[in-house]
Write a structure and sequence with these properties.
Shape: globular
Helix content: 40-55%
Bound molecules: 3-isopropylmalic acid, manganese (II) ion
Strand order of the largest sheet: 2-1-3-12-11-4-5-10-8-9
Number of domains: 2
CATH superfamily of the largest domain: Isopropylmalate Dehydrogenase
Largest sheet: 10 strands, mixed
Number of helices: 12
Order of helices and strands: EHEHHEHEHEEEHEHEHEHEEHHEEH
Number of strands: 14
Length: 357
């Protein structure tokens, strides 16, 4: 009897259910191929939770995800819930979930698939071979800082980081760099912000324990520009919550579509695996979403959480094969497409590639 894994499933809103269903298909294909079993348990979050229970993060979800080996998540939010008070919005549910789970380290790889090198809006020689890991701090910074207040004439938020919060995210970045090209670029705004001054000092201190890793610092405005100018200069980028949110969206376009890039939110007992894109309400329910980011997130889950490296590789190879065979969802249809396929067709093609490999 092989291993049994418990995976929490949060489909969420918009295209969430469609893309998560395809990731489940693909996970099932890897389970039968590599001889393990997956037990899924579904939980509500975001708009779906609001509709059912009145709040975006029900207590059953908080308690339930903690019983899992890992959690796979689609996306949340949509115009239907945009006018609710802030603490009742779907986004507050996701932020609360990350905080409750303690997943402070968000790994957002930006890689360019050779097959899609023409899909980027940037020139091929700029993006081909790009392989960046953005390490975004996820449970602190201005997203969570107190005090915060909205008033009609004055509103404010607080950007706060403690030494310990900076230290632990820096360690994650250096550990990852040790397995890659051994270069870390820490991104901040130390020329203006005190919080960044501390960030820089602490990252420097952590670097003392990683003498093999080359550390550089960059201001966030320059980093945004450098990502577009010459992305290949980066190996690992480490940054705070809001800078990481912005830079990872920018980095995603190096790959051609935000529909391609996965993420892993780790750092605690149970990790949360989610595509970096949102719920795309404009295309929800049409079956045209790209499930690759979520499927690739499932691969990260197998690798980082369940230690099923071979299964993770098989998913990544299956995605590359689907692309090199010319299958494209709408978002990447303009580039060397042999056949435009739906969300569920893309999922089946990838799952079949795994079963046949
Ligand atoms: C992301 C999203 C979220 C964030 C939103 C939906 C709260 O943009 O995962 O990048 O800002 O973290
Ligand atoms: Mn974002």
């Amino acid at each position: 009897m092989g291993k049994i894994y418990k995976i929490g499933i949060i489909k969420g809103d918009g295209i969430g259910p469609e893309i998560v269903d395809e990731a489940i298909n693909v996970l099932d294909a890897t389970a039968s191929k590599f001889g393990f079993e997956i037990q899924y348990e579904e939980f509500l979050l975001g708009g779906a939770a609001i509709d059912e229970t009145g709040i975006p993060l029900p207590p059953e979800t908080i308690a339930g995800v903690k019983r899992q080996d890992a959690v796979l998540f689609g996306a949340i939010g949509g115009p239907k819930w945009d006018n609710l008070e802030r603490h009742l919005r779907p986004e507050s549910g996701l932020l609360g979930l990350r905080k409750e789970m303690g997943t402070f380290a968000n790994l957002r790889p930006a890689i360019v698939y050779d097959e899609l090198v023409n899909a980027s809006t940037l020139k091929e020689n700029v993006v081909s071979g790009v392989d960046i890991m953005v390490v975004r701090e996820l449970t602190g910074g201005i997203y969570f800082g107190e005090p915060r207040e909205y008033g009609q004439d004055k509103a404010y938020n607080t950007m706060v980081y403690t030494r310990d919060e900076i230290k632990r995210i820096a360690k994650v970045a250096f550990d990852i760099a040790m397995k890659r090209d051994k270069r870390v670029c820490s991104v901040d705004k130390a020329n203006v912000l005190e919080v960044s001054q501390l960030w820089r000092e602490v990252v420097e201190e952590v670097a003392q324990d990683y003498t093999e890793v080359e550390l550089t610092h960059m201001y966030v405005d320059n980093a945004a520009m450098q990502l577009i100018r010459n992305p290949k200069q980066f190996d690992v980028m480490v940054t705070g919550n809001i800078f990481g949110d912005i830079l990872s969206d920018a980095a995603s376009m190096l790959s051609g579509s935000i529909g391609l890039l996965p993420s892993a939110s780790t750092g605690s007992k149970v990790g949360l695996y989610e595509p970096i894109h949102g719920s795309a309400p404009d295309i929800a329910g049409q079956g045209i979403a790209n499930p690759i980011a979520t499927i690739a997130s499932a691969a990260m889950m197998l690798r980082y959480e369940l230690n099923e490296e071979e299964a993770a590789n098989s998913i990544e190879d299956a995605i590359k094969k689907a692309l090199s065979d010319g299958y494209r969802t709408g978002d990447i249809s303009a580039f060397d497409a042999k056949e435009i396929v739906s969300c569920s067709e893309m999922g089946s093609i990838i799952a079949n590639n795994i079963s046949k490999s």
